[in-house]
Amino acid sequence: MVFWTNRRVPRPETPRMRPRVAPTELAKVDFAELVPEPVPFLGQAAYIQLEFFENLARAVATAPTLPAKEGLSAAAGVALRKHHALIAELRRLGVEPDDVMAPFAPATDRFRLATSGADWFELLLGIHITAGMLDGYFSRLAQGLPVELGSRVRAILDEEGASVVLETELKSAIANDPDLADRLALWGRSLVGDTLLIARSALRASEASGDDVEPVFTELIADHTRRMDALGLTA
Amino acid sequence: MVFWTNRRVPRPETPRMRPRVAPTELAKVDFAELVPEPVPFLGQAAYIQLEFFENLARAVATAPTLPAKEGLSAAAGVALRKHHALIAELRRLGVEPDDVMAPFAPATDRFRLATSGADWFELLLGIHITAGMLDGYFSRLAQGLPVELGSRVRAILDEEGASVVLETELKSAIANDPDLADRLALWGRSLVGDTLLIARSALRASEASGDDVEPVFTELIADHTRRMDALGLTA
Lengths: 235, 235
Fold this sequence. Notes:
Oligomer: homodimer
Number of domains of chain A: 1
Pfam families (chains A, B): MiaE_2 (PF13794)
Organism (chains A, B): Agromyces mariniharenae
Distance between the termini of chain A: 28 Å
Protein name (chains A, B): Ferritin-like domain-containing protein
CATH topology of chain A: Ferritin
CATH superfamily of chain A: Ferritin, core subunit, four-helix bundle
Structural class of chain A: mainly alpha
Number of strands of chain A: 0
InterPro entries (chains A, B): Ferritin-like, Ferritin_actino, Haem_Oase-like_multi-hlx
């Protein structure tokens, strides 16, 4: 998924990408220095929200209690709103959202299947980890979009969604069943690789390859660790 | 599911239920003469919307094309909005929605499984027929609620939801595969019984039993026939 580009008019105050520097300085490369091309950025972000919606809807349908169903259905509504709001941004740019999203469908569909788990708890953790990492990731990448678009996109992606209900349900499940903690810790770790691959696919290999983006991923993994810690799970 | 009651203060201008009359006059019994008890009415209606949402979300997840996914995801959003709006009405009445919905869950869950079909097209027709009949049914029953509540509930239920996208997808599928028409016609007929049972469960047997509510169901079935006709299917 190559869609990072030099085509945008440079903004003088923020160089597009630092010149290659020594490894110690590379650690300072940050999200604001990556400049996503708006259309495919929005397409991938929108399609990913649709996947989160689908997983949340599945979590609603298989929820063991009505309060869980309620909380998750509200969260599914948020993911759906994010999806439709990103779609609306694509329409504002004069493109057909389906055409833009289509190239991202196969990999994102595989990602959803790979992260939806073997039961309801794994499904919940799968959503919590992947949506937590990717919402944060795309929101930070949006800093590199044209300013107004970028701030609208960040507002869309930063809306509080599933994390509270997912954390509540997972914590109470783990408290009731200590064995579940071990299984979920393992599952949580296995989710990171797939999520990073999706994150990676959003960066143009030629421009942001190898070491350059290492700090971006380091930040993503730090987020993940905080999220696992909050559940009392070993990341 | 017995929740029709005499407990409400009678509104002088609309007698709660006509006295028993001769069969020829019974044909005139209409929805406005049925007085639902607000709390369980809202609970059942809200839970049914959650089921529509779940089926629509499943239709999104299994949609063969991205445009279908898009249209259905918007429809799923509408069902979810209806669900949450009805829940909000329950909260206004000072009750806990989960407690009110819980008694309706088992029968409604069974109903959803029974009407979700063997493939994507049957799922779509299942939603189209059941949501079409029941949204109309509950909206008309809402005429018997206290006036302000009733008009809010009707506005919630009457929001255009899935019917356009479902009709479009089904029509194009039927046009491409004439054999599908026969199978779907059969499936459509088989949905009526289950849907009427759910409708029936919303009427208190003691007050609106037997012939009294026949015209209500006649109207429901006429709706169904119109809906099948629009798809070119024999009802």
